[in-house]
Amino acid sequence: MVGFPPALDEVPPKLSQRLTQERIDAYAKASGDHNPIHLDPDFARAVGLPSTIAHGLLTLGSAAAEIEIWAQETAWTSRVSCRFSAPHPSGQVVSGQPRVIESESTRAAIELEAENEAGERVLSRGLVELRPV
After folding, report:
1. How many Å apart are CA 15 and CA 107, to the nearest integer?
2. Which residues of 66-89 are buried (b: 16+ CB within 10 A; e: fewer)?
């Protein structure tokens, strides 16, 4: 269990998530983003993608949620940001190793980058900022 603030040498658990088509469909419904690259495999392939892809914010939000779970009840997520670098094909596992890069009494910054199964970086320059509860 992490305390707040986390130590700079404290290592959050490795992130590993598989975003299934069912989860992508549910996110599309909740967000209102029904772009066919996320929902229609034939359309996705027609525009050069290997399959449907997860919404970028679904990928980022899922990763940020895992970091907040790691922090347990010591902190809440106050900010997230990243660069979406490559598609996250549906059903593929995306993984990455977050690291604490800043830690002080009022905030902690967790760096986050993640890759898909092909080794392509899906999230670059990711940052999850935590604040104490």
Report:
1. 21
2. bbbebbeebbebeebebebbbbbb
Phi and psi at 106, nearest 5°, equal: -105, -10
Task: Give tens-digit pLDDT for 48-90.
Answer: 999 999 999 999 999 999 999 999 889 999 999 999 999 999 9
> Which residues, at least 6 apart from 33, have a Cβ–Cβ distance to it below 8 Å?
27, 55
The beta strands (E) that lie in the chain are given as 15-18, 75-84, 93-96, 99-103, 108-115, 121-132
CATH fold, domain 15-19+53-132, is Thiol Ester Dehydrase; Chain A (3.10.129)
Would you state the pLDDT for residue 1? 57
List CB contacts of 86: < 8 A, sequence separation 6 or more.
Answer: 116, 120, 121, 122
> What residue ranges do the domains of the chain occupy?
15-19+53-132
